[in-house]
Amino acid sequence: MNGNERPLAKKLYIRTFGCQMNVYDSARMADVLAPLGYVPVDQPDDADMVILNTCHIREKAAEKVFSDLGRLRAFKQRKASEGGTMVLAVAGCVAQAEGAEIVRRAPYVDMVFGPQAYHRLPEMVARAARAGGAVLDTDFPEESKFDHMVAPERPATPGADASSAFLTIQEGCDKFCTYCVVPYTRGAEYSRPVADVLAEARRLCARGAREITLLGQNVNCYHGRAVDGREWGLGRLVRELAEIEGLSRIRYTTSYPADVDDDLIAAHRDVPQLMPYLHLPVQSGSDRILKAMNRRHGADAYRALVEKLRAARPDLALSSDFIVGFPGESDRDFEDTYRLVEEIGFVQAYSFKYSPRPGTPAADMAMQVEEPVKGARLTRLQDLLNAQQRRFNADCVGRRMDILFDRLGKRAGQLAGRSPYMQPVIVDASKSLLGGVAAVRITDGHANSLGGLLVEDEDRDGVRKKVCA
Ligand code: 5AD
Ligand code: SF4
After folding, report:
1. Per the domain annotation, does 142 fall within a domain?
2. Where in the numbering of this chain does the Radical SAM core domain appear (predicted)?
3. Is residue 31 within a helix (H) or strand (E), and if so which, with residue range?
4. CB count in 10 Å sphere of residue 166
5. Is the domain of 170 the same as that of 41?
6. Structural domain of residue 222, as residue ranges?
7. Who lines ligand 2 at CB under 6 A?
8. Cα separation of 230 and 200, whole Å?
9. DSSP state of 244
């Protein structure tokens, strides 16, 4: 190889599970590995490195990882029989929580590392090449991974293009809700410095981002240090981001109700780019259960907070997470949740049956609720939530909304995008509008999506009709 040749491209396949933060982390892992010659591919079969970026929130998460690993092992063996190598890695929250167990049960895995260690990937790759066994890195390092990362190259996006991008500003959690593994897998709460966040946001916008979703396990407890040494809250950060040329939409997720401060509420009033849609998990409508969950809000405090937010931004729509069948939840507690859902009028939500996570306090609580009871409550709650979502979508018909088109539609001549309320919207539109925001008249409200007409076309049709009449 002469000095001008780049290293031969190696195929990197990353499979991402779980939350948006994992999507962001996967993009950063690809960035960190790029200088070693790794190029992302869409299939694991023949890859030189496969990373499973795992999520520990859902039930039986570890079992699913083991069954995926079983399949990947066959690819690895085939590759080895052809004289190649496949580096197999498990990253993310299952790796953090079950690292030693993975190494024991799946000794053919080369690297196991938690969410705080991926800046050390190049070093781990070198160690894995030297070592005969798996490299395990599940410490919580003293240094922050954000300080050791290359400038992001690959935008992490929910869509198919770069017009909507994720940006992690905060990570970890100190709240210790009694059902949740996150404080154990993602570690202590940490906020990235303001200058880093702004620089990354500007870079994303220069590459075509029109929408940025700020990410954090507890994003509204953001308290990043500014250059002058002061700490900025999320409201201040949002105001500054709104100054970036070309950035039309700002979102943030996930929020902790007790940490929503007045400045953030004021930002909802003052900053038009801050979208009128907020994911604000309440989990339960029963004070007794909220207390047992160690949530630091009661149901009435949540109601009062929503009232304040709506006073600041009257068109605000809310989404939430719910857990039904938490230990000790009675019929009455569940009815409190049901009533809260009706009162707040959530337009979207994720709802789950409580499932014990080993090592969390709730797993050892007495009065675990029986499965059939949990199932019946979940069905009732989801029926209500779905009905509210359908009603909201139907009520959107006739409204004019700005839609950000971030992917092609399934049929030729169609684009798909997102409304300010995150509803998928399908519109007949030319490809030239991809990656941009356009005004759309909503014509159809389905259960999970909307249909519409470009206002431009609607005006033209209107004129044509007048001419014909
Ligand atoms: N059981 C059920 N749902 C859970 N969640 C977190 N931990 C559990 C658990 N042990 C839900 C919460 C949280 C969402 C991301 O997942 O509702 O907000
Ligand atoms: Fe988990 Fe509670 Fe922290 Fe959210 S706030 S990540 S539910 S411990």
Report:
1. no
2. 159-391
3. helix 20-33
4. 25
5. no
6. 154-395
7. 173, 175-177, 180, 182-183, 217-218, 256
8. 20
9. S
Q: Are residues 362 and 303 in the same domain?
A: yes
Distance from C-alpha of 356 to C-alpha of 359, rounded to nearest angstrom: 9
Query: Which CATH number do you get for residue 434?
Result: 2.40.50.140
**Chain segment 251-273, per-residue pLDDT in tens:** 999 999 999 999 999 999 999 99
**Position 452 in a domain:** yes
DSSP reduced 3-state for 224: strand
- Statement to judge: residues 332 and 427 lie in one domain: no
What predicted TM-score, i.e. pTM, was given to this entire model?
A: 0.89
Distance, CA 186 to ligand 1 centroid (Å)?
15
Q: What is the pLDDT of residues 113-145, one digit of tens each?
A: 988 888 888 888 888 877 766 777 777 666 666
- Total tally of structural domains belonging to the chain: 3
Distance 102 CA to ligand 1 centre (A): 23
Does residue 410 share a domain with residue 390? no
Binding site for [4Fe-4S] cluster: residue ranges? 19, 55, 93, 173, 177, 180
Which residue lies with its CA nearest to atom 16 of ligand 1? 57
Q: Is residue 147 part of a domain?
A: no
Q: Is residue 73 part of a domain?
A: yes
